[in-house]
Structure formats: structure tokens, C-alpha cells
Prior knowledge:
single chain, Collagenase (Catalytic Domain), alpha/beta
Amino acid sequence: MISVKEKDLFVLINIDTDIINTSATRFDLSLLKDAIISQLNRVYNGPVGKYKLQLSIHVSILKKISQCSPQKILFQIVDTIPGNNPAEADFKGLRIKLNKYYVNDIISGKNIRTIPHEIGHLLGWDHPHAKASYESVNLTAHRLEQELTEDERKNNLMSQTWYAQKALVPMDKAVKLSEKQIELLLLHEISLNKNRHLNYFLWWKKIV
Ligand SMILES: [Zn+2]
């Protein structure tokens, strides 16, 4: 589950997650767990404009699908993802699928951006730029996200990798958030805290 609380500009995000590997390749899931925790802590702790973010994350490693909890966010390593993208967030299911071909990059720290970016989608954020169009605004994103400046888009966590690359921003620097995104998070606070998507159906029974 996700919970978001704000008090005196301190924004506390609480995320409870499981990891499962349903791919045909073996991975050391305890190393992946450590990488997920440190990569999320790096991005979701500290000041964002007038706000101060603080993250509390719990990660459990599962061995069997029957251990999946409808109350938790799931990181699921899979054999394939359309377009061979590193990951895919399933907003309704609150699941993040990880492409097995990228998992070792996440574990080694070569890729420290995918996990926080996908969690950003689960927190309700969209890409701030238009699809395949540089120096653009995503007109389907929320009004607050459309208000990001071009400079903010270039180093923003929620911009796609190609956008930051085109702007010549190193990947480890393209992890910034904007005050507008925190405002949007707080607008979504009540619906996020209901974790309604988790209650719709036992989606996790269908994961393989
Ligand atoms: Zn994305």
C-alpha cells in the first residue's frame, strides 16, 4: 500500500511492497531489495521547493505467488515487457513489472532511475513532456505538471530517459522533483490513501 501524509510542509510517503520473480532467470532478490530501498531513499528524501519529503519503505521477498498480498505494491520480475522497456507500471494494479534483462543493472547501481520513476507513476505523476517530442509539454498531464518549466522537465524524475539524454543531463542527475508535483501528490492524497485500486479485484491472482 501507499500512504501519503502532510503536516507543516513535511510530506511523509509510506510504501509497503513485495518482490517476486516469475521469470525463467534466477536473481539474488535480497540484492535487488537493497537496491530498491537505497534508490528510492535517494530520490524521495529531502527538500522539494517549500516541502520536505520523507520516505518510509518496507520490502518483503516472496517465493510463491500464493504469498502475494492484495495490500501491497508488487515488484514482479518478468521475462518480457512490450517494447523491451526496463519496466512498466500498472496503475490500477499497483504493480511494477521489471524486465529481467535490466534487473542486473538495477542491482549493480548502473540504473538508479527506473525504480523511482515507476514509483512516481504509482504516486500519480505523468511524463511532463509530450510523447516523442523534445522541448514539449504533455497536454494530457495534470495542469500542475504542465506548469513545469523546460529546465525542470530536462532534469525531472518523471521525464523519460531519452528526454534527459537529449538534454545532456546525466541519468543520476535527472531525478529531480518539482514543487508542482508535490502539490499534485497532495491533491491525490485522499484517493491514494484509500488504495482503491487494490480493493477492486484480486488482481494478483492473475499475475502469471
Ligand atoms: Zn514513465
